[in-house]
UniProtKB/TrEMBL annotation:
Topology in membrane: Single-pass type I membrane protein
Keywords from the UniProt entry: Glycoprotein, Membrane, Receptor, Signal, Transmembrane, Transmembrane helix
Record Gene3D superfamilies: Ribonuclease Inhibitor
Record has Disulfide bond as a keyword: no
TM segment ranges: 91-113
GO CC term (a single one): membrane
Highest taxon, organism lineage: Eukaryota
Pfam families attached to this UniProt entry: LRR_1
Protein name: Leucine-rich repeat-containing N-terminal plant-type domain-containing protein
Compartment list: Membrane
Coiled-coil ranges (or none): none
Annotated InterPro entries: Leu-rich_rpt, LRR_dom_sf, RLP23-like
Length: 134
């Protein structure tokens, strides 16, 4: 027996839960579960009272049926939600490029344009080399 009732769970019932074949009973009542009870599993064999108090759940063994939606429309909608459709400004790429430019010229700029910084830098490298090789 697995009693997950009144645990403030939300989302859908995971398919992995339906693959637990050793379950004699399951109770997920009075949570905030949504979506369809996974099909073709032993979950349809449990009593509907095990799922009560979850108004967003649908499908067998519950009396409320799920609305049929076109799966290609769902896939398209999910893809648009998760990914940029290419019409926006690529802020990530712009920020990475600007960060590289600022970091590169922040380090290399003084070495290129200032002889005193360049001399000090190469003197430092020479001292480090001498310390490790001697």
């Amino acid at each position: 027996m697995l009693d997950l009732s009144r645990n403030h769970l939300s989302g859908g019932i995971p398919a992995s839960l339906s693959s637990l074949h050793f379950l004699a009973s399951l109770n997920v009542a009075y949570n905030n579960l949504q979506g369809q009870v996974p099909l073709g599993t032993q979950l349809q064999g449990f009593d509907a009272t095990a799922f009560e108090g979850n108004p967003g759940l649908c499908g067998s063994p519950l009396p409320n049926k799920c609305q049929q939606m076109n799966t290609s429309d769902n896939a398209t909608k999910n893809m648009e939600d998760e990914h940029d459709n290419g019409n926006g400004i690529p802020w990530l790429h712009i920020s990475v490029a600007l960060g590289f430019i600022v970091g590169f010229w922040g380090v290399c700029g003084p070495l290129v344009f200032s002889t005193s910084w360049r001399d000090a830098y190469f003197q430092f490298l020479s001292n480090v080399k001498d310390r490790f090789l001697c």
